[in-house]
Amino acid sequence: MSEPILAELGLAIVRVRLMGSKRPLLQIMIEKAGGAPTDVEDCASFSRMLSPVLEAEDPIADAFRLEVSTPGIDRPLTREGDFGRWIGHLAKLELAMPIDGRRRFQGTITREDEAGVALDLDDNSELVAKVSDMTKARLILTDKLIDITLASGAAPPQPEDGNFDDFETIEAEHDTIDDNQESGA
Predict the structure, then answer these.
(1) Element (H or E) spanning 181, and its range?
(2) CA dist., res. 91 & res. 134, Å (int)
(3) Which residues, 6+ apart, have CB-to-CB distance to 129 below 8 Å?
(4) In this structure, how many other beta carbons lie within 10 angstroms of the beta carbon of residue 42?
(5) What is the rounded distance in angstroms from the CA atom of residue 74 to the CA atom of residue 155?
(6) Residue 182 has pLDDT above 60, yes or no
(7) What domains can be seen in the chain, in order of their start residue?
(8) C-alpha span between 131 and 112 (Å, rounded)
């Protein structure tokens, strides 16, 4: 039902989740096709175009909330091809079926091919698993990942950039968090 909208906007779905029971949240994570930087306007456009379709199709019986977002820096890895784009970066994943009694793994992505995704693990072993055998997978936030994101222009403006002309800013008279709250006291 969303494919024509995605095609028109040049977007791809990263993940769809339905969470909660009282008033469910339908979370749709999108990115530009090919992984190009995606921004809040892309999310807003997709949401505006999808909402009337959801109203008409009524895929969820009860009232629900819609949230459209981007994957972020420590993005989930959900599709074949996702891992191949992030070779050399740390990832964490969980398998549906354990291997040697273990379901959770963390390591550096070394390749993605017809055999599956390969991770170099901390114990100098290698895990090879199919994306279809994973229940969860995501990148781990590291300085290297942050640097690559900043260099690609995919990160939001940073305070040191100093160019906030397009943003509304409000000067606070005082800090809103006092020292006791910040330290957990």
Answers:
(1) helix 179-182
(2) 12
(3) 93, 95, 99, 105, 116, 117, 119
(4) 19
(5) 12
(6) no
(7) 3-69 (3.30.300.70), 74-156 (2.30.30.180)
(8) 10
Question: Which H or E run includes 8?
Answer: helix 3-9
pLDDT at residue 162 tops 70: no
Please tell me the predicted confidence (pLDDT) of residue 35.
Answer: 77
- Alpha-carbon separation of residue 161 from 141, 150, 157, 184 (angstroms): 21, 11, 7, 31
Please check whether residue 102 is in contact with residue 121, taking contact to mean a CB–CB distance below 8 angstroms.
no
* Model confidence, pTM: 0.75
Q: Band the pLDDT of 126: cuts 50, 70, 90.
A: very high
- CA dihedral 47→52→53→55, nearest 10 degrees, is 110
